[in-house]
């Protein structure tokens, strides 16, 4: 789920178990620059919460009408599960059924009957992913409700499907379709992961762009606000599905260009103007998506605290290299070996460069980003020269050779680029 961004001095990392190179999940209040205490208040009176709806507007048509929790839950197309049903679907939230942990909760594998959605035995019926929110999180409850609000009504092949929810006492859970290959972050950065080939990377980028375009171009625009590799789930065919709608916001209406909001998101992915001013527009999603493109292109994390300071932020670091055709090869993910199309890589880098422009107005709209990505499947951009094909991809090269492969990336021509050892 989402995170709130802080000025560096008061960053509060809520992922205690995370690797230092992970994009951090932080909490703050933008207006006052004061941190919200880490021990968040449990929301015992959730029904007082209201969330702006993407689908309803007041009579002036300018602003979305806030809806109460009761209205949101009754309008949702998903099932209202009891806690005991979900307990039984996950065998009492057994540790071996744990498939992930985020800032606000744990995700378990569970089994339900395909028709009735009643809990079933492991291995029988349909697999679902059940997110159980940590109890003490008020922010968690708010995001839970936002998620039911949006995902309960929006359906698209590139958005994860919300099957149901549970609100019983202090327990807040969400039940999703199970997306078998897990998140993109693990595929890109886990040591043991099989490297993704070029075509798969483009397919993932296209699927993600379709999901975001759908949100931006809906009759009532939705800004997703948390585009990042860990929120992009992959099905067995590598179709991308956006998950985690806890930070989604109704976009500006009428003549407005943005909405003003507390700054929430993930460091390394959040757009600079949004961090600086709290003004949020769909172009902030375009920026974050551009950072995901950079991760796909370079195999490096959006934010890596294990690097020295000027190199921690991927977008800032690689920006100068993206538009230089001759130097581009220096930043391409060494796990691709030579097996990527030069022309396609150049076009992708140029597109990413536009998406991460510091001037939001210069970023292309998501529909245009999608069209450009679809063109990269054209043989003209997807062609890998036979010479490159003959070379081995790093997938089949021993680790020691991989180190050699990256060590030729030396700043021989003036840049401050240095070889990096990839995990
Ligand atoms: N529907 C799903 N199908 C399969 N795996 C899932 C599903 N939903 C979540 N997961 C797994 O659980 C992990 C944790 O999800 P969660 O959204 O709580 O946290 P996160 O995205 O990793 O971090 P954040 O709290 O910053 O969003 C995901 O990264 C993913 O690997
Ligand atoms: Mg997430």
Automatic annotation (TrEMBL):
<protein>
    <recommendedName>
        <fullName>non-specific serine/threonine protein kinase</fullName>
        <ecNumber>2.7.11.1</ecNumber>
    </recommendedName>
</protein>
<dbReference type="InterPro" id="IPR017441">
    <property type="entry name" value="Protein_kinase_ATP_BS"/>
</dbReference>
<dbReference type="InterPro" id="IPR011009">
    <property type="entry name" value="Kinase-like_dom_sf"/>
</dbReference>
<dbReference type="GO" id="GO:0005524">
    <property type="term" value="F:ATP binding"/>
</dbReference>
<keyword id="KW-0067">ATP-binding</keyword>
<dbReference type="GO" id="GO:0005886">
    <property type="term" value="C:plasma membrane"/>
</dbReference>
<keyword id="KW-0418">Kinase</keyword>
<dbReference type="InterPro" id="IPR001245">
    <property type="entry name" value="Ser-Thr/Tyr_kinase_cat_dom"/>
</dbReference>
<dbReference type="InterPro" id="IPR000719">
    <property type="entry name" value="Prot_kinase_dom"/>
</dbReference>
<keyword id="KW-0808">Transferase</keyword>
<dbReference type="GO" id="GO:0004674">
    <property type="term" value="F:protein serine/threonine kinase activity"/>
</dbReference>
<keyword id="KW-0472">Membrane</keyword>
<feature type="binding site">
    <location>
        <position position="132"/>
    </location>
    <ligand>
        <name>ATP</name>
    </ligand>
</feature>
<dbReference type="Pfam" id="PF07714">
    <property type="entry name" value="PK_Tyr_Ser-Thr"/>
</dbReference>
<feature type="domain" description="Protein kinase">
    <location>
        <begin position="93"/>
        <end position="381"/>
    </location>
</feature>
<comment type="function">
    <text>May be involved in plant defense signaling.</text>
</comment>
<feature type="compositionally biased region" description="Polar residues">
    <location>
        <begin position="1"/>
        <end position="27"/>
    </location>
</feature>
<feature type="region of interest" description="Disordered">
    <location>
        <begin position="1"/>
        <end position="70"/>
    </location>
</feature>
<dbReference type="InterPro" id="IPR008271">
    <property type="entry name" value="Ser/Thr_kinase_AS"/>
</dbReference>
<keyword id="KW-0723">Serine/threonine-protein kinase</keyword>
<dbReference type="InterPro" id="IPR050823">
    <property type="entry name" value="Plant_Ser_Thr_Prot_Kinase"/>
</dbReference>
<keyword id="KW-1003">Cell membrane</keyword>
<keyword id="KW-0547">Nucleotide-binding</keyword>
<feature type="compositionally biased region" description="Low complexity">
    <location>
        <begin position="28"/>
        <end position="53"/>
    </location>
</feature>
<comment type="similarity">
    <text>Belongs to the protein kinase superfamily. Ser/Thr protein kinase family.</text>
</comment>
């Amino acid at each position: 789920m989402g995170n709130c961004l802080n000025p560096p001095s008061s960053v509060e990392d809520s992922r205690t178990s995370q690797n230092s190179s992970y994009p951090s999940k932080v909490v703050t209040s933008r207006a006052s620059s004061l941190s919200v205490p880490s021990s968040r208040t449990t929301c015992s009176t959730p029904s007082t919460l209201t969330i702006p709806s993407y689908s309803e507007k007041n009579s002036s048509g300018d602003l979305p009408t806030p809806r109460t929790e009761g209205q949101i839950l009754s309008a949702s197309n998903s099932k209202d599960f009891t806690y005991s049903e979900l307990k039984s679907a996950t065998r009492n939230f057994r540790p071996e059924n744990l498939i992930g942990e985020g800032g606000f909760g744990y995700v378990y594998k569970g089994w339900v009957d395909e028709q009735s959605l009643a809990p079933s035995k492991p291995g029988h019926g349909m697999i679902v992913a059940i997110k159980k929110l940590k109890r003490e999180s008020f922010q968690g409850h708010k995001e839970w409700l936002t998620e039911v609000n949006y995902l309960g009504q929006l359906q698209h092949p590139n958005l994860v499907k919300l099957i149901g929810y549970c609100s019983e006492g202090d327990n807040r859970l969400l039940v999703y379709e199970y997306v078998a290959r897990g998140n993109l972050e693990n595929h890109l950065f886990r040591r043991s992961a099989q490297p993704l080939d070029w075509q798969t990377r483009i397919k993932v980028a296209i699927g993600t762009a379709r999901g975001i375009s759908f949100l931006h171009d809906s009759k009532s625009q939705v800004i997703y606000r948390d585009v990042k590799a860990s929120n992009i789930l992959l099905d067995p065919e590598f179709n991308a599905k956006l998950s985690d709608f806890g930070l989604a916001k109704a976009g500006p209406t009428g003549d407005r260009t943005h909405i003003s909001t507390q700054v929430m998101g993930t460091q390394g992915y959040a757009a600079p103007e949004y961090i600086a001013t709290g003004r949020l527009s769909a172009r902030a999603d375009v920026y974050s998506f551009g950072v995901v493109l950079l991760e796909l292109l370079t195999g490096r994390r959006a934010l890596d605290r294990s690097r020295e300071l000027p190199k921690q932020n991927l977008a800032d670091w690689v920006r100068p290299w993206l538009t230089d055709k001759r130097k581009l090869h220096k930043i391409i993910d060494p796990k691709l070996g030579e097996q990527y199309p030069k022309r396609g890589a150049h076009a992708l880098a140029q597109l990413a460069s536009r998406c991460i422009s510091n001037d939001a107005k210069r970023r292309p709209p998501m529909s245009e980003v999608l069209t450009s990505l679809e063109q990269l499947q054209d043989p003209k951009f997807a062609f890998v020269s036979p010479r490159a094909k003959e070379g081995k991809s790093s997938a089949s090269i021993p680790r020691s050779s991989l180190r050699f492969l990256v060590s030729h990336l030396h700043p021989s021509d003036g840049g401050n680029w240095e070889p990096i050892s990839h995990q």
